[in-house]
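*** Query protein ***
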Amino acid sequence: MRRLCYILPSLALLALGACSTADCDDNRNSLPLADFYSEGQRVMLSGLTVYGDGAPGDSLLLEDAQNVDELYLPFRITEGNTTFVLDFGGSSDEITFTYELQPRFASSECGVVYDYKISNITHTSELIDSVTCPGGVITNAPGVNIHIYLKPQP
């Protein structure tokens, strides 16, 4: 009987742990998603090549891509800034994001997720008019968090 008193609570704890169905969210990483606008309208681009500037190894994200209306821009977690080069089929611009990395406990299943608190965005202006991050912080919540506004084309 004494043994049963030890075994039953252990089995109850095991059953509680096994009944946990809360898995980690699908979107575990804070991965910035950018979209493109021109003259107030969302646009689709063709012939777009994008790569990370100064990134080790192969940093090519897109090469001569067609029908691009949004793009994931993975930020570095080892530095406080990341620069991307966007080549629009001959004309290119650079965008540099400066940010503070903010670790956040997501859940016991997911562990820690890094958010990016944007402090500054700079860019060249060959074809880009402006770049914004309306929320100021990029989290792992799904959705677009960066808007790239292009100059009107003749």
Observations:
- Residues 35 and 70 are 4 Å apart (CA to CA).
